[in-house]
Amino acid sequence: MATVNPWKRFIGLLPGGSRVVGEVLSIDPATGSSVVELRNGVQITALGVGVEPGLRAFITAGQITGPAPNLPQYDIEV
Q1: Residue 50 belongs to what domain range?
Q2: What's the CATH number where 21 sits?
Q3: Residues of the chain with pLDDT > 70: what percent?
Q4: Nearest CA to 38 among 68, 14, 16?
Q5: What pLDDT shows up at residue 50?
Q6: Is the pLDDT of residue 7 over 80?
Q7: Residues whose CB falls within 8 Å of the CB of residue 70, separated by 6 or more in sequence, listed in order
Q8: What is the pLDDT of residues 38-52, one digit of tens each?
Q9: Burial of 71 (0-12, 13-18, 19+ CB in 10 A)
Q10: HEC string of 2-60?
Q11: Per the domain annotation, does 6 fall within a domain?
Q12: What is the pTM of this model?
C-alpha cells in the first residue's frame, strides 16, 4: 500500500546513495573496474571503465557514473 505521508513520498523521489568525485588512477578492462583516488587521498576500487586515467569521475554507490569537471576545490572551516 502506498503511503499518504507527503514527506515519505518526497524522500522516495530522491536518488539514494552519496556521490563523490575522485581522480581515476588506472583502469582494468578485464575486471571492469578502476582505481580512483578521492579528494581526501583515499584510494578505492570502483566499477566502471568509462573515464580515462588522469581525469575526474563521479562515483555513486561504488560505481563510476560519468566524467566530472575539473573544478577547483576549496576547504572552509566554520
Answers
A1: 16-67
A2: 2.40.50.140
A3: 96
A4: 68
A5: 93
A6: yes
A7: 55, 56
A8: 988 999 999 999 999
A9: exposed
A10: CCCCHHHHHHHHCCCCCEEEEEEEEEECCCCEEEEEECCCCEEEEECCCCCCCCEEEEE
A11: no
A12: 0.73
* Number of compact structural domains in the chain: 1
Q: Residue written as cell 560519468?
A: 66
3-class secondary structure, 75: coil
Q: How far is CA 11 from CA 5, 16, 20, in A?
A: 10, 9, 20
Q: Grid coordinates in use for 50?
A: 568509462
DSSP state of 61: T
Query: What pLDDT, on a 0 to 100 scale, did the predictor assign at position 35?
Result: 97
Q: Which residues pair with 60 in a beta bridge?
A: 19, 63
* Average pLDDT value for residue range 6-33: 88
Task: Please identify which residue in the block is written with the cell numbers 588522469.
Answer: 54
